Amino acid sequence: MDLHNIQTYLRPQSLDTVENWSQGWTWLAGGTWIFTQKQPDLKVLVDLEKLDWSEIEVTPEGLNIGATCKMAKLRQWNFPENWTGVKALFCAVDELASFKVTNMATVGGNICLAIPASTFAPVMVALDASYEIWHPQASPRFVPARDFQTGVQQTVLQPSEVLRKIWIPQASLAWHISYQRVCVATAGIAISLVVAAYNPQTSQVRFGLGACVPTPRVVEFSHIPTADEIGEILDTQLPLDCFIEDYAASAAYRQHITKVLMQRSLLEF
Q: Which residues form the FAD-binding PCMH-type domain (predicted)?
């Protein structure tokens, strides 16, 4: 879609050259969402491509993913064999869309869009990721993935701030993963998404929930839970009014399906 109201297009080679940020400005990454929607309030696009933030860094401490890393690049990367947790990243790419989208869409863009049906946000929560956030004229800050999204298409990002990097600790990458997703139609928008991470050393289980709730949520157990324990923790931590209710599914149905997916995921461990 052509954005006829855009007045200026910037392509900085350094973040500190971005000055005088004001209303109507926005960062541009892959553009797979921004160019599919009307953007009547936007006047200036600031393209991140020249900043070269597309790196994938495998270190003894864990994994760094540059915010502008294309999803297809992440999917094709050769990770250490014992990093079983990267299965969740691969699933997040595979479940998103066609190759035409994943060859342009960025990991950071999907996270910052902050829609409930994001395929990446529950993964990052389940893997205990954190985000490095940059400001053109301030020091970087770090935010846990579980605290980043505050509402539907709302995040902790302040004006002119931008997601620079995703960090996943090595310990989480050694966990076993189950990725469960239910849609109302094939390739449709999910009504519930459950990413379960299991630590075989300690039996700890961490669930990242998405699509069924407005923001990604974490549910944790010190052991493999029973069906009753899953039901109890959903009732206490995520009662019915926490779930989305819309044309696709009722809150009660989403809660029920989420419980089913949580139980089903444990069968893979």
A: 1-173
